[in-house]
Structures
1.
Amino acid sequence: MDYLFQLRWSDGFVCPKCGGGEYRTAGTALFECKDCGHQASVIAGTIFQDARRPSANWFTAIWRTETRKYGASTEGLKQAIGLSSCETAWTWLHKIRSAMVRSDRAKLSGIVEVDETYIGGGEHSGGASRGTGNKALAAIVVELKPLSTANKTGLHPLGRVRLFVVADASAESLKPFIEDNIEKEGKVITDGWASYSFVASNWYAHTVHVGGKKSEGEQMLPHAHLAVC
Ligand SMILES: [Zn+2]
């Protein structure tokens, strides 16, 4: 609660109603203004509001979500917190991830891999037609952090990841997504799909990933694959 208090009032308590700076504690997360009696909560409007579990459990869950290389799993979270079911753990993860989305967020920068995949199945959208069938096609952008010399896998650590449902894999559909989410001057890696040919002529340094398994199993680009699978 001290931490949440610091986040809300980093320069000391300010009553949201009258601007007063004096308060008394009125509950675990409640602070009452000494001037007007207004009660302000440090958890109102946060994911801690209405939580049945102690906030410490939520901090544990947030820490797991933030630090697991491949994301927190529902099973792992269920066990770590002692939740009753994977469904509950899923709800927790969903709540945490929703809170992590910032509407004013910055675009991805540096080296960024771009690919598409179908949501609801592991199949890649490759092939001659890239028809969408019954599934939703999502475009994905993945930021690649620098490779350390100790890293022998050849895979970059992943930075920020974004997924958006797109109508199809045409340049018309993919272009706004790329321009909205990747900084100009970024280095963009795609496969050889023709829709990406605009990338090279649009501020970006474009690298076409070759040697993928387009013809046999339609693998996604390696980092995009790591990010969504
Ligand atoms: Zn007040």
2.
Amino acid sequence: MTGALALKRAAPSLASGQAVRFAPRAAGCWLVTALCVGLPVAAAAQQVVFEGGAVPAPLTAVPADATRGKIVFVQREKGHCILCHALPDPEVRFAGNVGPPLAGIGSRLSAAQLRGRIVDPTQDEPDSVMPAYYRTSNLNRVARPYASRTVLSAQDIEDVIAYLLTLR
Ligand code: HEC
């Protein structure tokens, strides 16, 4: 009975547009629950649509930040791309050479091609030795807590693309 009353009371306020406020609160509850039971929160990679080896649609709607992208490129906790790729950047002094140097990559590849390459290099080159940074399927020997997680977040990837596009 009280439940029905509460519903009746809630109904008019929902109609006046308050419903929007429930969504973030519900997301917050989910987040707290996920943290408490130890679920991977940064998980749930969204569906990515490839066209050839490229991914035309950005992974986020947030404008990309090239400065942050450089951090993603360099940091070990993030992409650690310098492990394999040299850069024409005086601030980046030590880099590996497993992959090709990325000088001028911004004029050779489009954002869509860069996105495809970073999300999942095997779409373009099945034998690629570069890690897939945004793939959760067909991975080998992933420890359970990481099973549904991607190496980088969608925003990390958009930011690193913005940075690579500055290398012309
Ligand atoms: C373990 C080594 C390794 C790491 C780490 C790595 N890459 Fe690569 N990458 C390669 C190799 C090797 C290639 C060349 C083709 C292939 O085997 O996939 C390549 C190719 C590329 C290309 C295409 C270059 C071209 O000239 O066409 C881009 C762009 C690229 N990597 C970006 C990145 C970014 C960004 C990161 C970090 C988020 C990264 N790579 C991390 C090994 C690596």
